[in-house]
Amino acid sequence: MDELPLEQVRTLLAVVDEGTFDAAATALHVTPSAVSQRVKALEQRTGRVLLMRTKPVRPTESGEVVIRFARQLARLERDARAELGMGMADGLGPVRLPIAVNADSLATWFLPALTRVPRDPPVCFELYREDEAHTTALLREGQVMAAVTSSPDPVAGCTVRALGLARYLPVASPAFVARHLTGARDLGEAPVIVFDRRDELQDGYVRALTGGAAGASAARHRIPTSEGFRDAVVAGLGWGLVPEPQALPLLETGALVPLEPAPPLDVPLYWQQWKLDSPALAAVAAIVATAAMESLLPPDVPAGGGHSTRP
Q1: Contact 229/195 with Cβ under 8 angstroms?
Q2: Nearest to 107 by CA among 168, 198, 55
Q3: Each residue's pLDDT tens digit, 25-49
Q4: Bridge partners, residue 146, by sequence
Q5: Which of 30, 63, 180, 191 has the most CB atoms around its CB within 10 Å?
Q6: What is the Rg, in whole angstroms, of the alpha carbon atoms belonging to the chain?
């Protein structure tokens, strides 16, 4: 395949980011016809359809490859300009780092880690709160430069390193236990808190624990924030797997009780990032790895099994 003309690559990126050919033309200060011609020329050069002409437009699988290249190219150009002293005075502004992270990490250890990132040069974080399946998709599409994920399989063009194990404790309020889990009642039949429709953590835990699935008649309360999830368990709406840092203080006060003899659940977390020589990204990766080492369990600690994290 011939080399990819940068003007055409940047135009494709503008179309995806702006959503339409007309909006991309406005952003690039050219005519919509010029945008269309550049995209068509790039598709002819690659021999692939790169865009689905929907509203908004969406990249095809081949288009995602080119879009990821375009974002990486933009990042390298920005870093080079910064090293040459062409900084905020030249209109570049702070370094922008888009990162995908699951809600429980965001609510416990991840934000404190970001406060350790040096402020010179200034960095702006753009965080995407998504479940592990979609964090890797965001990497694949080039939307984010790095992600906290439960997938150890590196996305093409990315490196991966183990961060540690996030421990979840199966807990409920004392009143809930007395009402729903006395005697020989099955945990799978009790009301349960889940994050959203994609949350498989509780169901996977019940399957591993009992060999069965959550009962079809069990009430399922969807609470789509980490703090709200914890508060719903404390309020007695259902049982749930709560991150250990959130659960321990409530266990000490008696607001929550452990579900005996249900063991904790340890979920492996990984850091995936673009293979780029970006000083800002490298600094953040090192700080995140250190914070994870301090906050998570070591990756080789024997655990009660692993399932996908909540979003």
Answers
A1: yes
A2: 168
A3: 998 888 888 899 999 999 988 888 9
A4: 99, 273
A5: 63
A6: 23
